[in-house]
Protein: Indole-3-glycerol phosphate synthase
Organism: Maribacter litopenaei
Amino acid sequence: MNILDKIVADKRKEVTLKKYVIPSQQLEKSVLFERNTNSLSQALRDSNTGIIAEHKRRSPSKATINQNTNVGQVAKGYKTAGVCGMSVLTDIKYFGGSIEDLLLARASVDIPLLRKEFIVDEYQLLEAKAYGADVILLIAAVLSEKEIKELSNFAKNLGLDVLLEVHNEEELKRSIMPSLDMLGVNNRNLKTFEVSLDTSKELSDLIPDDFVKVSESGISTIEAIKTLKEFGYKGFLIGENFMKTDNPGASAADFIQQLK
Ligand SMILES: O=P(O)(O)OC[C@@H](O)[C@@H](O)c1c[nH]c2ccccc12
C-alpha cells in the first residue's frame, strides 16, 4: 500500500464516522450553506499574479512545516498580500489540519477558499459548503471517471468551483469534462513525493483552453512562475514556501510584489 492508498482508506473510515456524528441534513442547516460563493477560477482569469496560497502545518513528505500558526491571521495576511485565493488543508491525520481551520479562515476573510482534502464522498462536499468553502479539490489519482463526474456535478450544484488535480497524461485524458472549472497539475507525485516542475510543462498542451490551468506544489521562485506562465498557467498553488516562514502573509506579500 502506498501512502495515498493509506490516506484514502483512513479517509473513508473518517467519513463513515462523521456521517453518524453530524448527518448531512444538519450540515445543510448551517448558515453558511446559503452563502453565495466566490469563484476562484474567475479571480485567476482576472489576475496577473495568480497566487493561491495554502495553509499547511505539516505533510507526509515534510513532517513539520509550521505548527505555530493562527489560521485566521494567516488568512488575513494572505488576503492583504493580494492572493487570488487561499487553500486550507482540512485533513487531520496526515496534514495536521481540520475542518475548523476552514471555518476560522472563512470568519476572517472573504477571498475564495479552497477546501484542500481527499474527497471521496458527496458528504465531504456538503461539509465543505457548510464550513465556508468556495472551491473543492478532486484528485484524479484516487477517483474513477464516474466518481469525478458525480462529485464535480454535485459540487457545481452547490455553487462550488471545482479544481481537478492530475499528475500524468492518463489521469488527464480520462478526467477532462465540462463540470470542472480548473485543471491543476500537481508537480509532486503523491505516491512517491518526487517533485518536478517538468510535470506542469509536459502536460500543459494537453489541457483544453476552456479550463484555467493551475500548477501545484514545489513552487518557490519568481523564475518558476514566469516559466510556467509561458506554458499557459494562470494559477500557482504555493504552500511550504510561505508556511515555512514565521509570517506566511508577509512572505506571500513580498513574493507577489516581486511578481508585479
Ligand atoms: O507546499 P507546496 O509544495 O507549495 O505544495 C502546495 C500544494 O500544492 C500541496 O499541498 C498539494 C497539492 N495537491 C495536494 C493534494 C493533497 C494534499 C496536498 C496537496
